[in-house]
Design goal:
Elements lengths: L5 H6 L8 E5 L12 H7 L4 E7 L18 E3 L4 E5 L9 H4 L4 E4 L11 H15 L2 E5 L11 E4 L14 E3 L4 H11 L6 E4 L27 H10 L19 E4 L4 H10 L5 E8 L11 E8 L7 H15 L18 H6 L3 H7 L4 H19 L7
Parallel strand pairs: 1-2, 1-5, 2-4, 5-6, 6-9
Antiparallel strand pairs: 3-4, 7-8, 10-12, 11-12
Length: 387
């Protein structure tokens, strides 16, 4: 069966008839013919497009840096306001929702706890419940599959906009399944309708879906980036470049002074599952170590089913800390957290950092996650919509 997106099924239904609609979207909110949901809504008879909302990086995903706020504007062609939900507010205000019958959310998640779009969705659910606006979430594939769950759980006290709820780093859920989890289990209580996909199976990666890759954000340019991201995103909490400013962010990692060949050879000798580390030297054009040669490696996933991105990311962080005399944990702030180290905010607790500092092997660190993952799997099973 060809895959049909939630947005495609919604637009073919009567759910939008007579409604004044706001939509949360960005450039990846397209269907299989590359038509954008905003255009589909604007052209749909009997539906009035009244407002557009953009997540982090903006509705047009034109803001490169990961923590720069975007402003509100107007869509000149459609003559509707474009509100930023990564601005002075993360949550739609009463003025933004005024007059709406329905808020449609059509965002492409990447399957990792720290990706902020799922929390934009959570804040939209919270605001919609408060202001009595119905919400429809259009489901989309988890691009890195819906089976594997991995990584440390977020611990109470470490909540942020890159982690509002206790999830493991790789959660293995679709954005629609997460909407139900947030709304029901975590008690948001909005009037929510999730429009499911047809034809999606949990083992499918994005390139099994029949759709072309559209960047969900500026530094996830490829599916390969998304596959590595649940682990290499930890480098945002270090002095090591995570490849921003290159054409392969989150696949290339490196730092000045690292000799790439012995560094990659040492990593390959560990025989981490499903991955090969190719020696690489790169020069970021912006962000960390801009215009400076960085030695390190490129991550090449050779077997997706075996690859464990979070284990790999932790092993890489520990390897750079051991090899790089200039290695540092990044200092706050990070996502408005001004006290806790960014690595702790990303990992969801201080435990991963403390384990690395104590010299605990990455494989042993990964074993410490297993009880939390088992508990989460029991919870998430209640909200899975695809078997």
């Amino acid at each position: 069966m060809p895959l049909r997106l939630g947005s495609e099924r919604l637009l073919a239904s009567s759910r939008l008839d007579g409604a004044r609609v706001g939509v949360v979207a960005n450039p990846a909110s397209v269907d299989h013919s590359f038509a954008h949901i905003v255009d589909r809504l604007a052209d749909r008879p009997g539906t009035r497009l009244a407002a557009i909302f953009g997540p982090q990086h903006g509705f047009r995903s034109d803001v490169q840096e990961n923590m720069i706020e975007t402003g509100h504007t107007t869509d000149e062609r459609r003559r509707v306001p474009v509100y930023s939900l990564y601005s002075e507010t993360r949550e739609p205000t009463s003025d933004m929702l005024d007059g709406l019958d329905l808020l449609v959310i059509d965002l492409q998640d990447v399957g990792t706890r720290i990706y902020t779009y799922i929390y934009t969705m959570a804040y939209c659910l919270t605001a919609a419940r408060r202001h009595k606006v119905r919400v429809i979430v259009c489901d989309r594939p988890n691009p890195i599959g819906g089976i594997e769950v991995e990584g440390p759980m977020l611990v109470k006290g470490f909540e942020s906009f890159v982690g509002l709820y206790p999830l493991p780093m790789r959660h293995g859920m679709t954005i629609g399944e997460l909407a139900r989890l947030f709304n029901e289990h975590f008690g948001i209580g909005a009037t929510l309708d999730v429009v499911t996909m047809e034809g999606w199976r949990r083992e499918m990666y994005h390139d099994d879906s029949g759709a072309s890759w559209v960047m969900p954000s500026p530094n996830i340019p490829t599916l390969d980036s998304a596959i590595a991201y649940p682990g290499t995103v930890l480098f945002e909490g270090t002095s090591v470049s995570e490849g921003r400013g290159t054409t392969r962010p989150f696949e290339l990692v490196g730092a000045p002074g690292i000799v790439s060949e012995p560094f990659a050879a040492d990593l390959n000798a560990r025989r981490l599952p499903g991955v090969v580390f190719r020696p690489a030297v790169f020069e970021p054009t912006f962000h960390k170590h801009a215009n400076t040669d960085c030695g390190g490696c490129q991550i090449h996933v050779t077997e997706r089913a075996a690859f464990r991105p979070v284990l790999t990311g932790v092993a890489l962080v520990a390897a750079f800390r051991a090899a790089d005399a200039a290695f540092r944990w990044r200092e706050p702030p990070y996502e408005y957290e001004t006290v806790k180290p960014p690595i702790d905010i990303l990992a969801g607790s201080s435990e991963v950092r403390e384990q690395i500092e104590a010299g605990v092997a990455a494989t042993e660190i990964a074993k410490s996650w297993e009880p939390g993952v088992r508990e989460f799997n029991a919870l998430r099973s209640r909200f899975l919509m695809y078997r």
